[in-house]
Design a protein that fits this description.
Helix content: 25-40%
Number of domains: 1
Number of strands: 16
CATH architecture: 3-Layer(aba) Sandwich
Structural class: alpha/beta
Radius of gyration: 17 Å
CATH superfamily: Ribokinase
Distance between the termini: 34 Å
Length: 289
């Protein structure tokens, strides 16, 4: 099976407990390498500069076409304090050109303005199953290059699944957590995922399914959402079962957090994800909405 990923690679400087770690990342890398754990072929549509170690993608057997830019790679400075983090944009690479690809599913997960609304529309027209993490559409920088969020008008027709946290969701729709999920569903999304730190909810039709990640000490949260999204998407495409997809996604996020590793090193093995997924499946809760 094949997954197409539209997102930027990045070079991140991650600060935890006054220690700095320079890591390659971006949702392109996190989503792509996670998908490789599920034996998916990955076509990556991205842009990176001469400062990016592209051999890392090649070593992980990730295909990338027309991805090299004369501009340096998108770069963030990320400060992490528990489950909270702040971002500062240090460099912005070129936008991503649209290319048609025959894939089983698509992930669109921009990190900062690399995908236009027109490109998103073209992807939607081509995709059999589209998973959207819209965070990069709503990000803007202030006068000190700190990342803040702005309201956006997002067309969600032909988006199969979306993942947002409560803060992000309030910049697309408004209301309580339940009202947010319903509003996103009414915009056309079949699977609405709301992640609120350790609480993960999934709205399908008129039911909300939920799991809670064990509240253990959190280290590096960078890329956890991308690992979650890619795992959900791959499991849906393979198993056609949204409950298993939810449990696998939660299991992947939990395994990544428990690893205590930094950057891409935290991407878990499929076996660990599967063990966690079985645990969550037995604790799954649901309620009518």
């Amino acid at each position: 099976m094949k997954l197409a990923v539209f997102a930027h690679c990045a070079i991140d400087t991650i600060t935890i407990d006054n220690y700095n770690y320079e890591q390659i990342g971006g949702s392109a890398c996190y989503c792509g390498i996670t998908a490789r754990q599920f034996k998916f072929d990955v076509d990556l549509f991205t842009k990176f500069g001469p400062d990016f170690p592209k051999q890392y993608l090649t070593e992980n057997k990730i295909n990338f076409i027309n991805s090299e830019s004369e501009k340096n790679t998108t770069k963030f400075v990320i400060s992490i304090n528990g489950s909270d983090r702040t971002l500062k944009l240090e460099n912005e690479c070129d936008t991503i050109d649209y290319s048609s690809v025959n894939a089983d599913g698509h992930i669109v997960s921009p990190i900062y303005h690399e995908i236009s609304y027109d490109t998103l529309k073209q992807i939607k027209n081509d995709s059999n199953f589209l998973f959207l993490d819209p965070q990069g559409f709503m990000r803007k920088k202030d006068s000190q290059n700190n990342i803040v969020l702005e309201n956006i008008n997002l067309d969600l027709l032909n988006v199969n699944a979306i993942k947002v946290n409560p803060e992000e969701a309030q910049h697309i729709v408004h209301g309580t957590d339940d009202e947010i999920m319903l509003a996103l569903q009414k915009k056309g999304v079949e699977y609405v995922l709301l992640t609120n730190k350790t609480d993960v909810s999934l709205l399908v039709k008129d039911k909300i399914y939920s799991i809670t990640l064990p509240n253990k000490q959190i280290h590096d949260t960078t890329g956890i959402g991308d690992i979650f999204c890619s795992t959900f998407c791959c499991t849906m495409l393979k198993e056609k079962d949204f409950l298993w997809a939810l449990c696998f996604a939660g299991g992947a996020a939990q395994a990544a957090l428990e690893s205590k590793n930094i950057g891409l090193q935290k991407i878990p093995r499929k076996g660990t994800i599967q063990t966690n997924a079985s645990y969550f499946y037995n604790l799954l809760k649901f309620r009518d909405l």
